[in-house]
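Input record (one chain):
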Amino acid sequence: MGEEKTTWTCECGRVNDGNFCMTCGKPRPQAATQDAEPATATPSAPQPMAETPTEPTRPAAFVPPAANATRPSVDPATAAQSSFRAMRTALIAGVAVIALLLGYGGYAAVSDQPQPAKTEQAAVPAPEASEAPAKAPEKQEKKEEPKLAMPSFTDVPPGSAQAALIGYYDDITKRNMQSAYGRLSDAMQNQMGVYENFANGYQTTISSQASDVKVQSSSDTQATLSYTLTSKDRTDSGKTKVQTFRGQATLEKGADGTWKITDMNVKKQGERME
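The corresponding structure, as predicted from the sequence alone:
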């Protein structure tokens, strides 16, 4: 059977079973022998004198670790990875705060999760400014003198005394002098003179028009009419002389049903140059 180990208590209070204290390193004290060894005995090897080490000052609450206590080992790669993750998390948190201040775009740049693609709206072309069409220069309209109303034979009964009077002045305007001279009674022709003298009297006449013809009195064979006469004549200076007259005419109806002018009186109302 093996030798039973004995334990001993060091001055520091540690219980040991070896030759040295596991806490302070002091050697195990030797036991005193009762019988002295003979002088001839081989002296034992001198034991080194153990110096009493100075015990370090410890905090009151310090508990010395057990001799066989083991510390957990830490993998350097794992420690570096954990440190990197902590730094990365802190960085993302800081950037996220800045992104919240700046808007949605900053957070999308640092977020681990994929951000939804932004739908770009098609640029709507701005409506082109419609250019107002250039106004054509306004033409200055020449002030025209009011045109004389042409006599309308549809306004008077055909074959009537009014139609005969209007026709007389219309023939003069159209230079149908023979027809105009024929609308006069024999008495009026004698008063006007021969045809040549009658025609020569209208050499400078441009137009001669009767308007506003009204019946003053009438019977089956005789009618008295009032009217307005407007005549235009050329002058030696090249201008046109416009004259207005208020007239009255008497017409008689012959056996063949034709109305002829038997009397005519006109009174000048006005004159102007064009």
